[in-house]
Design brief:
Layout: E1 17-19, E2 25-27, H1 31-49, H2 56-76, H3 86-101, E3 110-111, H4 116-140, H5 146-169, E4 174-175
Antiparallel strand pairs: 1-2, 3-4
Helix pairs in contact: 1-2, 1-4, 3-5, 4-5
């Protein structure tokens, strides 16, 4: 790491702009900065999920993904930089396949919820989808984010399977009951 933060506040963002790692400045509501923020929110939510008592294999996945998301935020802070490769996506697919093997096939939709950990995992999944939408906008603007886009697409699938794994392990998976109005 080249640059260490010695002072947390700089006042350089007080006018609604923020600096990128290459020294350029963007409005804080630009697509790129929104994508960085979504990645950060997802990472923080995964950090919250990791505070719950989970299987070591799930905690290991979360740790790797959190590091990947820092890589993504770092890449987005340097226009044109992209360290994501097919290896990142393939790793997610391997994790997904391993976890999904132990789950029964889906015959109904799953409601987000169950235990607190499963609900947080579902929340992480929806944040991941939002981050993915930001990358779609960047891609449409000509930015080279196709591999990170694939990564987030697979990650949202993995988070769904992780939420199911967590909910099934503690018996809290909730199936959608169409038309159920709680009467």
């Amino acid at each position: 790491m080249k640059k260490r933060l010695t002072k947390i506040y700089t006042r350089t963002g007080d006018q609604g702009e923020t600096g990128l790692a290459d020294g350029s400045r963007l409005p804080k509501n630009s697509t790129r900065i929104e994508a960085v923020g979504e990645s950060d929110e997802l990472n923080s939510t995964l950090g919250l999920l990791a505070t719950y008592p989970l299987e070591d294999s799930l905690l290991s996945i979360i740790n790797t993904v959190q590091n990947d998301l820092f890589d993504l935020g770092s890449d987005l802070s340097v226009p044109g930089r992209n360290r994501f490769s097919t290896d990142y996506v393939e790793w997610l697919e391997q994790q997904l396949d391993q976890l999904n093997e132990s789950l029964p096939p889906l015959k109904e939709f799953i409601l987000p919820g169950g235990s607190a950990a499963a609900a947080i995992c579902h929340q992480a999944r929806t944040i991941c989808r939002r981050a993915e939408r930001r990358l779609v906008t960047l891609l449409q603007e000509g930015e080279p984010v196709s591999e990170p886009l694939k990564y987030l697409n697979r990650l949202s699938d993995l988070l769904f399977v992780m939420a199911r794994t967590i909910a099934r392990s503690d018996g809290t998976e909730i199936l959608w009951n169409p038309g159920n109005r709680g009467s």
